[in-house]
From TrEMBL:
InterPro entries, sorted: Amidohydrolase (IPR017439), Bact_exopeptidase_dim_dom (IPR036264), Peptidase_M20 (IPR002933), Peptidase_M20_dimer (IPR011650)
Coiled-coil residues: none
Keywords of the record: Manganese, Metal-binding
Name of the molecule in the record: M20 family metallopeptidase
Residues binding Mn(2+): 98, 100, 136, 165, 360
Lineage: Bacteria, Bacillati, Bacillota, Bacilli, Bacillales
Organism (species): Halalkalibacter oceani
Co-factor binding comment: The Mn(2+) ion enhances activity.
Taxonomic superkingdom: Bacteria
Length: 395
């Protein structure tokens, strides 16, 4: 069996048996099974060791400095798969729709390769390979997997961190990679608009919260265009709106949930202030509101020295590769917590198919040829990082 064939086997197994954030127990066991007994590889699992019950940290080497990190996420999404693939999810309503199965397979391949290099005496330093749970969502404490693992201290000796993300909208042998902010801050809001409710036949006797909501929606959607500078990335989206239970009853409350995404700290603050100002307007019509904000991932910032190393790496691994120097969009990534702790960078790896799909869609799939390319990039980038040139710049 070739290395490329093994990567596909790993990926398809993981795709067939997806698990949601904080519940990746069988995924964790599968990762351990594929890595157990490899020369020079020490496996760390469990809440007391890595901060969560799920996830794996595979340390390759003898613990000698320098120590660098490679990261993949392992959780799936609450999406009903509609690909019709032979390896389609067997768990109804759960799907690897963001490529985490591919990320995990590539890091499994990287650990195997690094183990071989260690055994032959060619690995100078230590590589901590993090199979991270719970990238997609936070727990009741508002924390994602990266935050829990950082708090455990298991990564305290790491000097730099690298990750990659599959991109189904970008052709194979193309990547997105640039320095600076490449993905957004994300803040989640919950709003309750309250009135008095009443009979549908006598709206004048009620303070209709649905009517109040209809008045503020244009104001909410207009915030990015009218309160934020045109060259400043900012998006407000409402994903959930609930009200009422009967056709002839005016309800007393409307509930809305949505997200705000920005690149800069200044825009992040301005968006929240503007949101509150719009909501204040319901008071003029006899209503009231409650706003709850949950501040999520910070913007992902790629360190210039790591980006330069990755550019050199991908061109050495695949000379014909096309590099698009552009941000990755308004999505968020909890790798940003790791990249804020040390110099780090994430690249987006093209893996498009003829039947184009997008992340977080029930038809999501990707070109599996990207698995071998991604594995090679991870391994070569790790070796170049350990060689010292980029780390000396960091130090």
């Amino acid at each position: 069996m070739t290395a490329a064939e093994q990567l596909i086997i790993w990926r398809r197994h993981l795709h067939r048996y997806p698990e949601l954030s904080f519940a990746e127990h069988k995924t964790t066991a599968y990762i351990v099974e594929q890595l157990a007994g490899l020369p020079g590889v020490t496996l760390h699992t469990g809440k007391e060791t890595i901060g969560l019950d799920t996830g794996v940290l595979a340390t390759v080497g003898n613990g000698e400095a320098p120590v660098i990190g490679l990261r993949a996420d392992i959780d799936a999404l609450p999406i009903e798969e509609k690909t019709g693939a032979d390896y389609q999810s067997v768990h109804r309503g759960i799907m690897h729709a963001c490529g985490h199965d591919g990320h995990t397979a590539m890091l499994l391949g990287a650990v195997h390769r690094l183990s071989e290099l260690h055994e032959s005496g060619k690995l100078k330093g230590t590589v901590k390979c993090l199979f991270q749970p719970a990238e997609e969502t936070s727990d009741e404490q508002g924390l994602t997997g990266a935050q829990h693992i950082l708090a455990s201290g298991i990564l305290d000796d790491v000097m730099a961190m690298i990750a990659l993300h599959l991109d189904p909208e970008l052709p194979y042998k193309q990547i997105k990679l640039c320095s600076g902010i490449v993905m957004a801050n994300v803040d989640t809001f919950s709003i309750v608009i309250s009135g008095t409710g009443g009979h549908g036949a006598y709206p004048e006797q009620a303070v209709d919260p649905i009517w109040l909501t209809s008045l503020i929606l244009p104001g909410l959607y207009g915030i990015p265009a009218r309160k934020i500078a045109a060259l400043e990335p900012a998006v407000l989206s409402i994903g959930r709106l609930e009200a009422g239970s009967s056709a002839n009853v005016i309800p007393s409350q409307v509930r809305l949930n949505g997200t705000i995404r920005t690149y800069s700290i200044a825009a992040r603050g301005q968006m929240e202030i503007a949101l509150r100002h719009v909501l204040e307007s319901v008071k003029a019509y006899g209503g009231s509101y409650e706003l709850t904000m949950e501040h999520g991932e910070p913007a992902l910032k790629n360190a210039p020295e790591i980006v330069k190393l990755l550019e050199e790496t991908v061109r050495s691994v695949e000379p014909e590769i096309a590099i698009h120097e552009q941000p990755y969009g308004m999505g968020s990534e909890d790798f940003s917590h790791l990249a804020a702790q040390w110099p780090g960078a994430m690249l987006f790896l093209g893996a498009g198919l003829p039947q184009q799909t997008a992340l977080h869609q029930p038809t999501f799939d990707f070109n599996e040829a990207a698995l071998e390319l991604g594995t090679n990039i991870l391994v070569e980038a790790g070796l170049r990082l350990l060689s010292g040139k980029a780390l000396s710049t960091i130090q």
